[in-house]
Design goal:
heterotrimer, A mainly beta (about 100), B mainly alpha (about 290), C alpha+beta (about 170), B: about 290 residues, mainly alpha, Cytochrome Bc1 Complex, Chain D, domain 2, two-stranded antiparallel ribbon, C: about 170 residues, alpha+beta, Immunoglobulin-like, 2 domains, six-stranded mixed beta sheet, 4 helices, 9 strands, about 35% strand, globular
Chain lengths: ~100, ~290, ~170
């Protein structure tokens, strides 16, 4: 995943781009069989280890999900950590410093 | 008033369009005459092409044509800017960089095949190889590099080759297209590409010029067609429809299918010559691939 | 700052001057706010029923059982009038409504109308963006949960298929 976090006038804006197919479970393969659904269901973020965002998502989110949120405070160099979990239970965590 | 102005522009545009078609046919004949000035003839084509679009879209600056339909349609431009703020193709560029740097089984790398180690060279493609007697596009060159080093060629429309092409384009961002037609043999290839561009094909009997020159900027069913000027600058493109990166020849094949013409092989002679013609027409415009498209 | 830290108020109150008292009160409040954000997010979980609901009403009532809807002009919903492609539609929701708990996006005609729910805390600014899929022309509805009510705004987004884009 890619994270861009920037602080401006005491507000930090965090943008994320997560690599994930977000398979809806409604598509069929070439033989006509349904491709099983596999999509991110939860995304959470923390700032210097304090929870600062949580989203429930589903199949209606585009492939390679993009999300952005903002919070008050944050300083250049602070750590932003983002974790996602998908419908198979797989998770991934990424980190970036606020610019 | 705006409508009258627009109609007038389209009429003027139509006149220019016919002139361009006549030029296309004329140069096809001229090629068989003795030692004409190829560079001058090509320059004439380039000037006529640019003038056509300048008249059609008087408010659009030349440099903006690298952005395709977003140069001429503000509604879709807004959505495109949102995508470009954090574009999905960033993953493919990273992937492309890794693939580009990975050595072949024999220890050599892509950098060994290209000028300047393959960095910042996108704008010089395609070029006409006098020895091989054919147009070499960047993507063809990538596979030629692989084959010269004992590797299997990659598929041309998407996947790893598109990623490598995207990475190489990204290192060339801002460089202006510098594709030339240096001699008669090159000119023949250029003319073939030009003919393809202006020839009607398919059940719907459209030429590239019909949609991307004559009615560029107008609605064709639910779409506004992009201007042909600058079309190759942004490739390979991440199309929302494909949900992934695809090459210029993938798009050529798709467009041909849309007008119910037989799609031709990616990196085959016809599409390479077409790319050559399009790139020559786009000279002076900045490389900005990869980019997002509809 | 944890609860219990620096909370020896009785001692501090002995040396009361108004400014000092207020400053301590605020510090205490800040502590409580920080702590409050933890459970709110920690307890939040994926609402499977709401995401699998196949009608707009079903999705809304699963997500927000028993809460009252109110149309609002205090929410800015940014979405294209005509989406370039239904697979990737950029959407943004921004509001100055106070104390926003959640923001949800619903696509009326999608097979599963609930697209996403953002959980916010007092440290967040209510400004979120996402790219969603829309299967066909549909109303896009943004719901902001604030002050115990559901503030709603909607916009039609046209989704076209075909044309020469292919």
């Amino acid at each position: 995943m890619k994270i861009k976090a920037k602080v401006k006038k005491d507000i930090t804006k965090v943008k994320m781009l997560i690599k994930h197919d977000m398979e809806t479970g409604r598509r069929k393969d070439q033989d006509g069989n349904i491709i099983p659904g596999l999509y991110i269901t939860e995304v959470s973020a923390s700032h210097n280890d304090q929870p600062v965002f949580y989203a429930e998502v589903g199949q209606a989110v585009s492939k390679d999900p993009y999300m952005a949120f903002s919070f008050k405070g944050g300083a250049s160099g602070d750590k932003i950590s983002i974790t996602w979990k998908d419908s198979s239970g797989a998770t991934e965590t990424g980190e970036a410093a606020i610019k | 008033m705006a409508l009258v102005k627009r109609r007038l522009k389209i009429k003027v545009g139509a006149v220019f369009f016919s002139l361009l078609v006549l030029c296309a046919l004329a140069s096809a004949d001229a090629a068989s005459d003795s030692s004409p000035d190829f560079k001058a003839m090509v320059q004439q084509d380039v000037d006529a092409f640019r003038t056509y679009f300048k008249v059609r879209f008087s408010k659009v600056a030349f440099a903006e044509y690298k952005n395709g339909v977003y140069a001429i349609d503000s509604a879709s431009r807004e959505q495109w800017l949102e995508m470009e703020d954090f574009p999905p193709y960033e993953f493919a560029v990273d992937e492309g960089e890794e693939l580009f740097e990975m050595p072949f089984a024999n220890g050599k790398t892509y950098a060994d095949c290209f000028a300047n180690g393959g960095e910042g060279i996108r704008q010089n493609y395609p070029y006409f190889d006098s020895q091989q007697g054919e147009v070499i596009t960047l993507e063809l060159a990538i596979n030629k590099c692989r084959e010269a080093n004992g590797e299997k060629p990659l598929a041309y429309k998407k996947g790893p080759l598109a990623a490598i092409s995207a990475y190489m384009a990204s290192t060339s961002e801002g460089n202006k297209f510098a594709v030339e037609v240096p001699d008669e043999a090159a000119y023949q290839a250029y003319v073939e590409g030009k003919k393809f561009f202006y020839s009607k094909r398919g059940q719907l009997n459209f030429s590239c010029a019909d949609c991307h020159l004559r009615v560029a900027g107008q609605k064709l069913r639910a779409d506004i067609t992009s201007p042909a000027l600058g079309q190759p600058t942004g490739f390979p493109v991440y199309r929302a429809k494909w949900e992934e990166l695809g090459t210029l020849h993938r798009r050529y094949a798709g467009c041909n299918k849309n007008i119910r013409a037989k799609p031709l092989p990616a990196q085959g002679r016809a599409y390479r010559n077409l790319e050559y013609f399009q790139s020559v027409m786009s000279q002076g415009l900045e490389i900005n691939g990869p980019s997002s498209r509809k | 700052m944890l609860v219990g830290d620096d909370m020896n108020l009785s001692e501090k109150n002995m040396k009361i001057d108004r400014r000092g008292f207020l400053s301590n009160l605020l510090k205490g409040a800040a502590c409580i706010v920080t702590v409050a954000s933890l459970p709110r997010l920690a307890l939040a979980a994926w609402n499977e029923k709401a995401f699998k609901a196949e009608t707009l009403e079903g999705a809304m009532s699963s997500k927000y059982p028993g809460l009252e809807f109110v149309d609002s002009s205090a929410i800015k919903l940014k979405a294209p009038a005509i989406a370039e492609n239904g697979a990737v539609v950029p959407v943004g929701v921004k509001t100055d409504l106070p104390d926003v708990k959640t923001i949800s996006l619903f696509v009326e005609k999608n097979p599963s109308p609930l697209a996403a729910t953002f959980h916010l805390t007092p440290i967040n600014v209510a400004d979120v963006s996402i790219r969603i899929r829309m299967g066909e022309t549909s109303n896009l509805i943004a719901v902001v949960e604030s002050g115990g009510k559901l503030h709603r705004v909607q916009q039609e987004v046209k989704v076209t298929i075909g044309g020469c884009g292919g």
